[in-house]
Amino acid sequence: MINGSEDHFSNFIRHQSVFHFNLVSEECRTRWLNGDDPSDEGDVESIPQLIKTFPSHACRNPIGIEAKTTYGISAKNTRDIFLSYDVTFGFACINKEQEAGRCEDYQVLLTCPSDFCQGCRTRWFDFDNPTGRGDYETLLQLEMVFPNEVCSQPVAIEAMTVSATGQTRNPHTPGGRRCQDYKVRFTCPLSFCLVHNQWS
Ligand SMILES: [Ca+2]
Ligand SMILES: [Ca+2]
Ligand SMILES: [Ca+2]
């Protein structure tokens, strides 16, 4: 199975590797999340509830939490008293504990462990073998053959030989040189993995 040129493929690998290393150093923060309002007993933005409401955005073990009102006023600058404002439970403002009798509507932003933002890994794929021009495991091809298992915008790719004892020279091939048989796996955005549930 031959698909595309080798130059294109090696450029692809190089590009993906660079991107992977850049990503690790980035701070891992969610967008502003607002899953509740103060119309009942109060405004409760608990971690479990946020995960339920925003499964591809909120993380299970946040290392930081920040709250501000929907008008953009930081939680520390309002007169409200909070029942909870930490990474263990999340954020909670109870109406009856307030002088005004009602909490503002808050949104929260979580800082997550860096591995949360790196997404999740697929299984290993070995679709081609190194007969003919070489061993081609292209994203386009793999996506076509395994549509629910490979994401179209991976953040990283890894490749290794199928056989642990692979040799660089194959004595049975005329001319002596051919590629080893490789398998590849991808790191995909978390949103993809939650939907398809195929990560390891
Ligand atoms: Ca509420
Ligand atoms: Ca809210
Ligand atoms: Ca292969």
From TrEMBL:
Where does this protein reside within or beyond the cell?
Secreted
For this UniProt record, give its keywords in alphabetical order, as a comma-separated list. Answer: Glycoprotein, Secreted, Signal
Q: Which residues form a coiled coil?
A: none
Determine if Secreted is one of this entry's keywords. Answer: yes
Q: What's the main place this protein lives?
A: secreted
Report whether Glycoprotein shows up as a keyword of the record: yes
Q: Name one Pfam family in it.
A: Mucin2_WxxW
Task: Give the CC-aspect GO terms.
Answer: extracellular region
Taking every annotated instance into account, which residue ranges of this chain make up the domain WxxW?
30-112, 122-188
The identity of this protein, by name, is: WxxW domain-containing protein
Q: Which organism is it from?
A: Myripristis murdjan (pinecone soldierfish)
